[in-house]
Amino acid sequence: IDIDQSGSIELHELKQRLADNESLRDYFRALELNATDTLTLFELLDQDESGSLDIDEFCDGCMRLKGDARAFDINFMIQQSRKANKRVNRWMSESSHKFSDLSLSISNLQSFLRSILHKDETVGEAVDGNEVGAGETWNPDCWEQKDAGNHDAPDDALLK
């Protein structure tokens, strides 16, 4: 099967041998292995996901998969489940890092805004022209917005 005699079997080598080697197809049939889907078969045999099969992986995998189609299908589902689990774990890790970064950014923004909106410990500090007395906290929500030219203008006039 090892066409280039590298000591391992690559997917293209398995495909080529299955296409032109009747005895290999007979071997798989004797083990009751479904070799019609070469890619799936190769992925099931390649337990370490290295992209190549050494002799132990090939032999152990064939023995593990031998039997009726149900063993093949079950092993295929197990392999797919492992792959999905790896993707989900990778996504969770990446998301966790991104949420941590986002949380830190929000915390930094909150601190920055507090430093702008709250008075220092100094008594009588002026914030935006408004005097804040000792023990008071400046509250921007209590601002009254009025037209600079007409202090008696209704608030909805400013929205136009």
Describe this structure as you would to a colleague.
- With 160 residues, this protein is mainly α.
- It is 54% helix and 5% strand.
- It contains 5 helices and 4 strands; from the N terminus they run E-H-H-H-E-H-H-E-E.
- It has helices at 11-20, 22-30, 38-45, 55-65, 69-117, and strands at residues 9-10, 52-53, 126-127, 130-131.
- The strands form 2 sheets. Strands 1-2 form a two-stranded antiparallel ribbon.
- A hairpin with a 2-residue loop joins strand 3 and strand 4.
- The chain is elongated.
- The N and C termini lie far apart (80 Å).
- The model is unreliable at 121-127, 145-151 and 153-160 (pLDDT under 50).
Q: Into which percent range does the helicity of residues fall? A: 40-55%
Order of helices and strands: EHHHEHHEE
The fraction of residues in strands falls at: 5-15%
Shape: elongated
Mean pLDDT: 77
Q: Which radius of gyration do the C-alpha atoms yield?
A: 35 Å
State the strand order across the main sheet: 1-2
Number of DSSP E strands: 4
